[in-house]
Write a structure and sequence with these properties.
Strand content: 25-35%
Largest sheet: 8 strands, antiparallel
Distance between the termini: 97 Å
Number of strands: 29
Shape: elongated
Length: about 775
């Protein structure tokens, strides 16, 4: 028997139904908003695997092409490896639900989210998070939910819950918020320099928006939910843990306070090995397993680190709670990269490279569920094993690397003018060392690399991570807390929060909150946001000492670009039949040429010569006739009333017989022949686009420019040659070859001109020229 609840969210409704499909799963729901539907099923193993030492939670989100009525791309026409969006949505779903499982419960849990219908406007990612919560709530899996999830946009200053893809185009905020009945649990997203006050207001808006979702899930669980199963926790036997603590004593504190990371790890490892041997001697190998040893020493370290922070105001590296570790930066250190930077904060170091590409280098991808299908700005993050002094399997980027890259990408993107900047941009971050928040080091290093490459960023961007350490009372409420600026790896591992916030001097551009707690109050987050702002100002000031603004010149190895705007009606002419014209031009110039529908033509070239070839050809092919301008054209048609001259590629104009010369012309061919190249001047264009040309006016203008009489007399070229037809040689009135006019002497009085208008004087005084 199925049950459903309807939940109001903003001006929309979300329907959650359970009991209709996937009934063999421990918990399953179908979540719908508009015509977008996601099916979520959760299953928990009945027992833990032998030797399991951690909680194996897997969240898998997949978008089906059929949901949008499409075929998958590729040869096999079947969905394959998860896309970047699918991986990021899986992480988005995983992070808020993970802290709510019982500590010490190591049974495998899988949560699978399948998009079965996509209307192209309502993004299914929020439905996946909400569905994961609902599936776990109605299941027998032990879990401390429910949670609500909402996307918050801001359009014209007003917050909007779960905006559509069309609405998001107008929004200056993209906040994903997950909360429980009273506290926030997770958030992530980006913004266009939103102020700290407005950001806190957006979080409050999100908290209010998720309340109906939580109430709806409670109602659904009351109707159809299963009783929670009995579980067995894997914990260290109390007597073994007590013995381990006694053996460690104060020596664990001494080891933890070792200043350098690797030396600290070595000191703790040596102490752990010593204590492990003594525990085995006392309790035997059967009871002191590898899991018991690791878990016992984890608790010892965690307790010592937290005690130092909460009771002695001490951090492992000796800093106070508000100090950012020393910062070092360098730019331009890789000669062939278009932009490069080295950013180091304490023992975290990122080497970043910026590459400028053409429009063809933009990343294209399937977008079954709507939204963007292309990216001009890409950031990739890589975390090699050597960055933490370890060995391990070497493979492609994992979910963590993809997630960290996405965080840095969305933090920098709002300050990159992608709508006006013609290049595609790729930033790669290679982590050289890591001891806390390498994603924020990637933001800082990525910004420096972009500016080193000459990308005209609106303002520099920096990021910082704020941590949290808490004490709880008997009712599991936070009784005391300390905020930690610029956390290191050990504080991330043993404390309660990793809150990353990036932005400029004017506001926030990127953010991500991860908690190990079941939630924190908004008042505590407001303090965190302000602490992040203060630290960000310090980091920006340090970055300005390295490079304060984008370079004015591009690297000599970066492709140059020239943008030409043509009449959109000329696009077909430029491309040619079957792409003939554009392909030929690309081959001749060696350039890459991108043509937009609005008539914008971007020419990319590393060589100036190739750029000139392409530019001149495009301008020639698409230019419009300009009244009063002189052109060099080719005679393509001879008529009794004049000649048609191709003065621009594919563009003809008529030179009427009366405009061929400054005297009466009896026959067109007396002056020009097919194939002749002549100078013509544009006299006008009629309403039908027909162009009137004049050879007579062009020759007169050229004669004036050369210092002549301006009456259309003989026009000598700068090299001393007169204008010549295609057949060569100088041509007189009838096109024959003659001696230069100046050597013909006085030919005497030629008498009346008859129908040519009477006696015009001695011919020697009125030289004739075509």
């Amino acid at each position: 028997m199925s049950e459903k609840v309807t939940i109001p969210v903003g001006d929309k409704q979300i329907i959650i139904e359970s009991g209709k499909m996937a009934k063999q799963a421990d918990g399953a729901v179908m979540v719908q908003m508009g015509e977008t539907i996601v099916i979520v099923a959760a299953v928990g193993a009945t027992k833990a695997k032998e030797g399991q030492e951690f909680f194996p939670l897997t969240v898998d989100y997949r978008e089906k092409a059929a949901a949008a009525g499409k075929f998958p791309g590729g040869y096999f026409k079947r969905e394959g490896r998860p896309t970047e969006k699918e991986i990021l949505t899986s992480r988005l779903t995983d992070r808020p639900i993970r802290p709510l499982f019982p500590k010490g419960w190591y049974n495998e849990v899988q949560v699978q989210c399948l998009v079965m219908s996509a209307d192209g406007e309502n993004d299914p990612d929020m439905l996946a998070v909400l569905g994961a919560s609902a599936a776990l709530v109605v299941s027998d899996i032990p879990w401390a939910g429910p949670l609500g999830a909402v996307r918050v946009g801001r359009i014209n200053g007003q917050f909007v819950a779960n905006p559509t893809h069309s609405q998001m185009l107008e929004s200056d905020l993209d906040l994903v918020y997950v909360g429980n009945q009273k506290d926030m649990v997770m958030y992530e997203g980006s913004a266009k320099e939103i102020s700290e006050a407005d950001f806190n207001a957006a979080l409050q808006f999100g908290q209010a928006a998720v309340q109906p979702m939580i109430a709806g899930q409670r109602e659904l669980a009351a109707r159809i939910g299963k009783p929670k199963r009995e579980i067995r926790l894997n914990i260290v036997p109390p007597e073994i843990l007590a013995e381990a603590k006694g053996l460690a004593g104060d020596r664990i504190v001494t080891a933890l306070l070792t200043p350098q990371k690797l030396q600290r790890e070595a000191a703790v490892s040596a102490l752990s090995e010593e204590i492990g041997k003594k525990l085995v001697q006392k309790f035997g190998e059967e009871r002191v397993t590898d899991f018991v040893l690791k878990d016992a020493f984890y608790y010892i370290q965690k307790e010592a680190v937290r005690n130092l922070i909460m009771n002695f105001n001490k951090r492992l590296d000796g800093r106070d709670f508000d100090t950012v570790r020393p910062i070092y930066g360098e730019v331009g250190l890789l000669p062939r990269a278009h932009g490069s930077a080295l950013f180091q904060r304490g023992e975290t170091q990122a080497l970043t490279l910026c590459t400028l590409g053409t429009g063809e280098d933009a990343q294209e991808f399937d977008s079954y569920t709507g939204g963007a299908s292309e990216k001009k700005f890409i950031l990739h993050y890589n975390f090699p094993n050597f960055s933490v002094g370890e060995t391990g399997r070497i493979s492609g980027p994992g979910r963590r690397e993809i997630g960290h890259g996405a965080l840095a990408e969305r933090s920098l993107e709002p300050m990159v003018p992608l709508t006006t900047y013609p290049y595609s941009i790729r930033v790669t971050s290679e982590i050289m060392e890591s001891n806390g928040s390498s994603s924020m080091a990637t933001v800082c290093g990525g910004c420096l690399a972009l500016m080193d490459a000459g990308v005209p960023m609106t303002r520099p961007v920096a990021g910082i991570s704020i941590g949290l350490c808490t004490d709880h009372d008997d009712e599991d409420r936070i009784s005391r807390y300390k905020l930690l600026t610029d956390i290191i790896g050990w504080e991330d591992a043993f404390c309660d929060m990793d809150c990353k916030i990036a932005g400029t001097e004017k506001g926030i551009t990127g953010f991500q909150l991860d908690l190990k707690l079941r939630g924190i109050p908004h008042s505590m987050m407001a303090e965190t946001v302000e602490k992040a702002r203060q630290s960000r100002m310090h980091v920006l000031a340090e970055m300005a000492k390295v490079l304060a603004e984008p370079r004015k010149e591009l690297s000599k190895y970066a492709p140059r670009i020239e943008t030409i705007r043509i009449n959109p009606e000329k696009i077909g002419l430029l491309i040619g039949p079957g792409g003939k014209n554009i392909k030929k031009l690309v081959e001749e110039s060696g350039c890459e040429i991108n043509i937009e529908d609005d008539g914008t033509v971007n020419i990319y070239s590393v060589a100036e010569e190739g750029m000139k070839i392409a530019r001149d050809a495009i301008m020639g092919m698409t230019a419009e006739a300009e009244i009063g301008k002189v052109y060099r054209g080719k005679v393509v048609t001879i008529k009794d009333f004049g000649a048609f001259v191709e003065f621009l590629p594919g563009k003809d104009g008529l030179v009427h017989i009366s405009e061929l010369a400054n005297f009466r012309v009896k026959q067109t061919e007396d002056i020009v022949k097919m194939g002749d190249e002549i100078w013509v001047k544009c006299l006008g264009v009629d309403e039908k686009g027909r162009v009137r040309l004049s050879r007579r006016a062009a020759m007169a203008e050229r004669d004036q420019q050369a210092g002549g009489s301006g009456d259309g007399g003989e026009r000598h070229e700068p090299n001393g040659q007169t204008e010549q037809g295609d057949h060569g040689g100088e041509r007189g009135e009838h096109g024959g070859g003659h001696e230069p006019r100046g050597d013909r002497g006085d030919r005497g009085d030629r008498g009346g001109r008859g129908d040519r208008g009477g006696d015009r004087g001695p011919r020697a005084q009125r030289p004739e020229h075509r």
